[in-house]
Each structure stands twice: as structure tokens, then as C-alpha cells.
Amino acid sequence: MKLNCKRIDFEYTPGEEIFTFPEDTGLPFIFDVLEEELTENKEAMDIVGKMLDEAEALADKAKAVLKQVLSDETHKRYGTVSYFMEFHRDEVDPETAAALFPETDPVSLSFVEMVDYLNLKRFGSCMDEKMDQQEFILDFSFNPEVTDELMVVYFNLEKEVVEITHES
To answer: pTM score > 0.70 for this model?
Structure first.
């Protein structure tokens, strides 16, 4: 089947997982659909194509939400997001911090400012088992060649952030 997407010409096999690297697709990030249930559902895959066309807009929205979380210490995800930032600014050695935040003094960066240094590294779709609903996953990293830590933002079909996690 052909993915209904303006941004890439992509063929997939219904009922098989999709996992691609940038050099395979021309996308600047990994693209995957790791649920056979989704790849065999044309409607779900049409939604994947539409959301993939909007990946950068979703990434911008995710960053705005991360900044909002960091601006509110009472937010339920504040601890997760602030720990991710603190680790990369304060817990790594100075050389690593310099590699993560080039052309700036990492110590002087606020957590909110650090969000601007995050890069979209993966765009994927899966099923949320609790809600039995398709969702979209955006993995962000400062620099995957330096750190394997990820800030992961989950979106629902309405393009609303439903979860934020820190993974490695």
C-alpha cells in the first residue's frame, strides 16, 4: 500500500510493522508504525500520513507544551521534564554540556530556554492500550550522538498532548 502523505512517497505492507531511518525516507527523523493492527487499517494509516505531513508543527506544539510545563512547578509533569533538563545541564560533564548546547554557556541556560535545543528524532504511531485509541509519539533529543536520553511526547488524534515521559 502507498502511504497517503504529501511529504514522502512511501510504500508499506499492510499487517507489517514500519521502521525506517532518515537515509531510507529522506525525512529528518526516524519514522515508524510499530503496530500491525494500524498498518492493516487504511483509515489509521491515512491519519498517519496526515500527521506525518504535520510532524514539524506537532514538534513545535510539543515544545510549547514543554515550556508551559516548565513554567508551572505545580504541573503534574514538571518533575519529569525538569529532571530531563537538569540532567543535561547540570549532571553531565562540561565538555558534554558544551556539545549539547553549542555557542552558549550551558550553565546560564534556563530549562525553558533549553527546550529550543531539542530536536525531533522520531515520529511514530501506536495504539494506546488503555484508551484503545491511536496515538502519535514524538521523541526529542539534544544530540543522539552525545546522549541517549529522550523526552517523549504523546499526542492523541485531536493533536493534544496526552503524555510526556523521559526515556533512555
So the answer is: yes
